[in-house]
Amino acid sequence: MFHHVEGFILEEGHAVQRLTSDYSYDLVMSTFDGSGYAEPGSVYFQLKAAEKLQAVGSAYVFDVDVRDYNLWIQEDMPVILVLFDASRRRAYWLCVQRYFDDDVSRLPRKGAKTVRVRVPKRQAMNRMAVEKMRELKTDMRRPNLGILP
Question: Are 62 and 47 contacting, i.e. CB atoms less than 8 angstroms apart?
Answer without folding.
Answer: no
